[in-house]
Amino acid sequence: MLNPLLAKSVQTIQNIGKVRAQQLNKLGIKTIGDLVTYYPRDYEDRTREKKVLELTDRDECAVILRVLSDVSLTRPRRNLRIYKTVAGDETGLVTLTWFNQDYIRDKIAKDKTYVFFGRVKRSGNYIEMTNPVYEEVNSERKKTTGIQPVYPLTAGITQAYMRMIQRNALDTVIGKLTEILPDELRKQYSLAEINYSLENIHFPASFEEKERARKRLVFEELLMLQLGLMQLKHNQVTVSGIKMDDKPLMEQFINRLPFKLTNAQLKVYNEIKEDMTGEKQMNRLIQGDVGSGKTIVAVLAILLTVLNGYQAAFMVPTEILAEQHYQSIVPLLKDYDIKVALLTGSVSKKDKDRIKEEIRNNGYQVIIGTHALLEEDVDFAGLGLVVTDEQHRFGVKQRAVLASKSNPHILVMTATPIPRTLSLILYGDLDISIIDELPPERKPVKTYAVDESMRERVYNFIKKTVQEGRQAYVICPLVEESDEIEAEAAASLAERLRERELKGLSVGLVHGKMKWKEKEQVMNDFSAGRIQVLVSTTVVEVGVNVPNACIMVVENAERFGLAQLHQLRGRVGRGKHQSYCILFCQSKSDIARKRMEIMTKYNDGFKISEKDMELRGPGDIFGVRQHGLPEFKIANLYEDMDILKEVQKAAEDIVKNQKLSEREDYKRLKEHLLLMFQDKLSEVALN
Ligand code: ADP
Ligand code: MG
Predict the structure, then answer these.
(1) What does the CA dihedral 72, 77, 79, 85 come to, rounded to 10 degrees?
(2) Atom of ligand 1 nearest to the CA of 295
(3) What is the pLDDT of residue 498?
(4) Taking a C-beta distance cutoff of 8 angstroms, is the pair 538, 565 a contact?
(5) Are 63 and 137 in contact (CB under 8 A)?
(6) Residue 156 neighbours by CB under 8 Å, 6+ apart
(7) pLDDT at position 539
(8) In Å, how far from its chain's centre is CA 473?
(9) Spatial separation of the C-alpha atoms in residues 274 and 280, rounded to whole Å
(10) Going by fewer Cβ within 10 Å, which terminus of the chain is more open, N or C?
């Protein structure tokens, strides 16, 4: 441990006994280090002092007041004692109220002057403060001045107590902590020193100082993760993978496909092939917009694996998708004597056991399934490749579980385009391939944002299109009717469409609460064209591929984020027919209007993610939340994008110039990194 002091139990801190220590444990605080890195979530600014005249409703500030009456006591009911007094300055009067604070009468005396800090309630000229903190004006002020930290807490621990033990803990460590960031780095990026930073993140003298402290701590936290990921990736060079051979059959397979691969697909397949026929383990992410044809690229990697005598697992986030991939992959591989298994959560125990037995004996070469594949203890005869589709549904953790199973090649696929800065920290341990081209003859989906007045016309349009042989989706956000949320319920909507607006058409329904068998039946019927209009919740959001469907209607579109809308729209525009996306938007809010505008204007996922960022600032960047972000103690990827950029520059420089292994002044940083990534990084591997 670099700072042994931080590893000591919190019980060694003043005012923390056994019971308190247990309560702190619940907040994840065991050591002094845990405590001092339990950062405030906010601050109260007690430096602001006002005159009574200036007080406004909901103000939180300090006022210097002379107490004008004795403190009175009323007991409106048992267990409630209200203490009141009136105090004022030369500009006005304030009523002060405390609940159940029986010692108030000993502390507050008539004709004396105090500083009171608290939240103001004002209506007209009546001004009140409830439970204000106070100090005599001439005392050495502690509580009513400065900036006070506000911590996230659990039951049993008060702000006052947390502030006190933080103070105590800081008093024992500040001045004794060794710096892990080298001077060079701190100078280059204007990073404050560690002792200063810890003190000022908790008890800053000013907001400028808090910001300086925060920047350093955020920088350190992000740098550790970024460097760790880069080193992991660097390490993979040394993890030997399963070396495969290229096979002539591959070319035959590609030539026999019903379509010609795009250049982008070929390029990405070549990158995959190079990885798999090389010495090292593949860890590759494929990014490609919805409809860019990622599945077939995965199939190529799978085929290459099987032709080399290994098994391949294909993992997807939903059962619908697993089934769909199964349906489309089996015929592709049928000429090659390859057995494909479908293993999902709803397969019966008996069948599962049989399938697993077969997998163990290499009776199946390709296994398609949901996450269940991870949880089930599946023993492979020889696993050579793991593909995970729609990676944004898999967290970093799940990826780690996979990697630890054995060392198969890893291929992950996502449709969520994210800027490079983010992919570096989310997927810093992966190589990235991009399919930046759509198959030819794809007509961009025409998108319209409409309101209720268009409903009839929309239904007429659906009828007309269905009569021409096409199909349509209608998406609702919810499954069951709920009072709180006025969104259309899928079940009742389907009913209504069937009986009224779309009478005569075959309307199907699919939602998350249906039994798997029912879902499967509905999806099969839709694929085969037996269902013409599919009313669905967002279960079809990812991956579903029915090229004959060319209308996507989204109810309550304002409830969806841009990432989701783009995914939903991606369900159409997959065939030769002109496709349409119709967004019913009930909201007139500015943000809803702008989102609809972006959707109607742009078809390209990267562009939309860019616009999304502009719109909200780096807010919930295009579904980043789904990426399984690591939990940070202080950093916030949404707000700290600028710091992240600096961190990446620094990390790249450190790795490129091998500073961790060669520079004495980076030694502590390196030790720290090894500690953090204990089992994953070894001394030897750090460059
Ligand atoms: P996604 O990248 O969203 O997963 P899919 O792999 O589901 O996209 O492919 C979408 C559709 O495009 C499928 O019907 C697939 O057969 C078809 N497709 C894929 N590649 C090509 C291509 N090169 N030319 C024509 N159609 C293609
Ligand atoms: Mg897909």
Answers:
(1) -20
(2) 6
(3) 94
(4) no
(5) no
(6) 23
(7) 67
(8) 28
(9) 10
(10) N
Q: Please tell me the pTM assigned to this model.
A: 0.68
Q: Which of 261, 300, 323, 574 to mutate to test the pocket of ligand 1 (most atoms within 8 A of CB)?
A: 574
Q: Does domain 48-145 have CATH number 3.40.50.2000?
A: no
Ligand 2 centroid to 389 CA: how many Å? 7
Beta bridge partners of 86: 95
Measured from the Cα of 297, ligand 1's closest atom is 6
At the top level of CATH, the class of 446-602 is alpha beta
Classify 248-435 by CATH class.
alpha beta
Give the atom of ligand 1 at the shortest distance from the alpha carbon of 294.
Answer: 2
Q: For position 486, what pLDDT does the model report?
A: 32
Ligand 1 binding pocket (C-beta < 6 A) is 259-262, 265, 288, 290-296, 415, 439, 543, 545, 547, 574
**Candidates 255, 260, 296, 442: which one to mutate for ligand 1, based on the most atoms within 8 Å of Cβ?**
296
The pLDDT value given to residue 640: 85
One DSSP character per residue, 643-687 reads HHHHHHHHHHHHHHTTHHHH-GGGHHHHHHHHHHTTTT--GGG--
The encoded tokens of residue 333 equal 């591989």
Measured between alpha carbons, how far is 155 from 524 in angstroms, rounded to an integer? Answer: 51
pLDDT at position 140 is: 79
CA of 541 to the centre of ligand 2 (A): 10
Phi, psi of 297 (to 5 degrees): -65, -40
Asked whether 516 and 346 are in contact (CB, 8 A), the reply is: yes
Q: How many residues are there in the chain?
A: 687
97 bridge partner residues: 84, 130
Q: Which ligand is nearest to the CA of 297?
A: 1
Compute the chain's Rg from CA coordinates: 31
Q: Note the pLDDT of residue 422.
A: 76
Per-residue pLDDT, 641: 81
* Same-fold call for 248-435 versus 446-602: yes
Domain coordinates in residue numbering, the chain: 48-145, 248-435, 446-602
Tokens 């619908």: give the residue. 320
The pair of structure tokens assigned to 548 is: 């004959």
Residue segments in the chain with a per-residue pLDDT below the cut of 50: 479-481, 483-488, 617-628, 683-685, 687
| Chain segment 59-77, per-residue pLDDT in tens | 888 999 999 999 999 999 9
